[in-house]
């Protein structure tokens, strides 16, 4: 018999964000096909994809229009670059569409292949901008602990993921991190309102400690995604805006997850009225059908780069790749035609909020929160109301049980998160919530030594 796919996978494939050895022992699940909000594995299981792949398959799986857009573009012009005074229709069309959807002061876009490359581009642009403005010493970028901005060296450095920094060695210099506005995790001794103000004040303190003349930019996600679907207290963003307005500092809003309807607006920056100078984008830009990212550039930075910059020595072979751009453009057209963003804002988001919040009555759940089509459950020990011992890895247990129940729900520590496709129906939201409850019930049973499910791919928790 030829070796199985899991065996070949184990033999040759190093997976991202994976303990290679542990995966080798446990084996990976082979996903073979998908439609709508459901994925299927090689053993015949169907799972509701509560994560839209990795926060990206916003229009759901199996969209013929996106497949056709790719096929037509591949025949027409599968590749050409945009380096040497050349361009092509898909890149132009997508640039125009993006600038029309973005806040009014953002009229230019630089294309990349991913969100990480978008954040590398951000760093290059921020430095270039201040150099052109005659302040080359203005180099410090303030990010946030537990923020995520990608996995290249610059993305990792801008992000505040402690485990990545521990493994990464020295990152890019002149990047520092301040506390995150994670009320459930770090602020419950204060009101959310007071905690939001305290987190904004921490930014100002850092600016003053570094010297305001030396601070180039502040970077943040509107709502932290990979950090655990962390919606900041209502007081946070207005207070941050007030701080940044007092000093001459660029605002970079990482829209890689929040952009394209996730929160019920085209961008998180619109929801929170942020008026950013730079907005990295990726993921939902193409509904994940092909890799593409970019940086939307506000007029203040664009005017300087264009008028005073000369040649900007930066770009990627696949910047504005015609096939990726054609698919992204079609993706955005479909979102407009079907009113996807408005439906998330007016219908699906409020419906998910109502159904998801019902899970707060579960003994394992300390908080159930959602915004648009992003949600989180904070798991707590029912006997104490506090966090579980980290070593118990209860979040990982709950995630594996959730998969066994037929729901893709992800864990970040003991926070369970969802981010389903934006085309999910009410009935499918009902199914998602009842599967999540089933997973919570089984997690609670196992924690008390009892169990009803066999976990995939093999039982690991006796
Ligand atoms: C996923 C993500 C990135 C990195 O995007 P890649 O395409 O994986 O490089 C950057 N920022 C945020 C907020 C993300 O969620």
Automatic annotation (TrEMBL):
One of its GO terms (cellular component) is cytosol. GO terms for molecular function: pyridoxal phosphate binding; transaminase activity. InterPro entries: Aminotrans_3, Aminotrans_3_PPA_site, PyrdxlP-dep_Trfase, PyrdxlP-dep_Trfase_major, PyrdxlP-dep_Trfase_small. It comes from the Bacteria. Keywords: Aminotransferase, Pyridoxal phosphate, Transferase. Its cofactor is pyridoxal 5'-phosphate. Signal peptide: none annotated. NCBIfam families: PRK07480.1. Belongs to the class-III pyridoxal-phosphate-dependent aminotransferase family. This is Aspartate aminotransferase family protein.
